[in-house]
Design brief:
By secondary structure, this protein is α/β, with parallel strands linked by helices. It is built from twelve helices and 15 strands. Helix 2 crosses helix 3, helix 6 packs parallel to helix 7 and helix 8 packs across helix 12.
């Protein structure tokens, strides 16, 4: 695998990096049997993950369909998937008839869910995060499923513990986190009753140049806005590494469901990240609030041991993001609201 550039100068350069498979993923795609379907593939991670799956399949010398299903409100994302050999299907996953019409592939990556706006649209949040998984499980009852979850299901954990581990008791706070736990429970139920091999992927947090917790901090520093440090620490992982680990989790799907944290190795101080961005950007840093003794933190060591250490370091991400923001790089304009300690999104 080629080395990483000193800076990321275009969206196209980033896209290439985000879909670049690891050797372990290429090997796994050589072993995996059958086609792969991504549900909810039109979001922040889906397009690059589906293209990574296709590229890893090709590099492994295999022939399989890689299919992305979504409403595809972003037409550009759909056309780019098609240009890279990924088949696309337009589907409203809340319509049972449309779900019933999806091809029954041996492998399913479930990416759909609702987070932002959850507190103001509770009924839709519950439908998306708990009812929809039951439709999917009943239709794909002969598939293996890797289903996205979130580190928010753990709730706040003392910084001294080094992040929540997969065996911890869940303690979700707020409508989003509670329904995310509900999503896991629905997948676990059908995993048990229908013997569907399942992996639950607790992500915390994927980062690229246009979106992520580090991007939020960097943009505040560059704009001269105060950085709230009440959520004093965070996790961040390069989205390309999160893509690869999520796909590798397909091979570990089992009954009962197998759980994995997908998180970076560091417990990152928000204050220190802001100060680093200040140094890199030549900006004064304004801090507001005081660090709490607990935070939303996940321990990713289990995933690192199984899938390999993340290929992109924290230092590399900080440098890339600082450079991107200073050059006026594109933004998805979707703040993560990572600083929210009450679970309101």
């Amino acid at each position: 695998m080629s080395s990483f550039p000193a800076s990321i100068d275009t969206v196209e350069t980033q896209e290439e990096l985000l879909r670049r498979p690891t050797p372990a993923l290429v090997a796994m795609m050589g072993r995996l049997k059958g086609d792969v379907l991504f549900l909810g593939a039109g979001g922040k991670m889906g397009p690059t993950m589906a293209r990574m799956a296709k590229r890893a399949t090709d590099e492994a010398g295999e022939h399989r369909r890689v299919i992305a299903a979504s409403r595809f409100s972003d037409v550009r994302a759909e056309s780019e998937l098609q240009a890279h050999g990924v088949e696309t299907l337009r589907c409203d996953l809340l319509d049972p008839a449309q779900v019933a019409g999806l091809p029954k592939t041996p492998n399913v990556v479930y990416m759909t869910g609702m987070k932002f706006g959850a507190s103001g649209q509770a009924p839709l949040t519950w439908a998306m995060n708990t009812w929809l998984p039951s439709l999917v499980c009943q239709h794909f009852n002969e598939s293996r499923i890797a289903a996205f979850s979130t580190g928010n299901v753990y709730g706040l954990t003392p910084l001294s513990l080094g992040g929540s581990v997969e065996s911890d008791v869940l303690n979700p706070v707020g409508e989003y986190a509670i329904t995310a736990m509900g999503r896991e429970r629905i997948f676990e139920y059908f995993c048990q009753t229908l013997s569907i091999p399942t992996s639950l992927l607790r992500l915390n947090y994927a980062t690229e140049m246009r979106y992520g917790v580090l991007v939020d901090v960097a943009r505040k520093v560059y704009a001269g806005e105060p950085v709230d440090v009440s959520m004093g620490s965070l996790n961040a992982i390069w989205q390309g590494d999160a893509n690869a680990m999520s796909l590798l989790a397909l091979e570990h799907a089992s009954t009962p469901a197998w759980v994995i944290n997908i998180a970076g190795p560091e417990q990152i101080s928000v204050r220190r990240a802001a100060e680093t961005f200040g140094d890199l950007m030549g900006r004064e840093v304004t801090i507001e609030g005081d660090e709490a003794p607990d935070a939303l933190l996940s321990n990713g060591q289990k995933g690192h041991a199984l899938f390999g250490y993340p290929t992109v370091s924290l230092q590399q991400m900080l440098a890339w993001i600082a450079d991107w923001v200073m050059r006026g790089g594109a933004s998805l304009n979707k703040p993560t609201h990572f600083e929210n300690r009450k679970g309101d999104f």
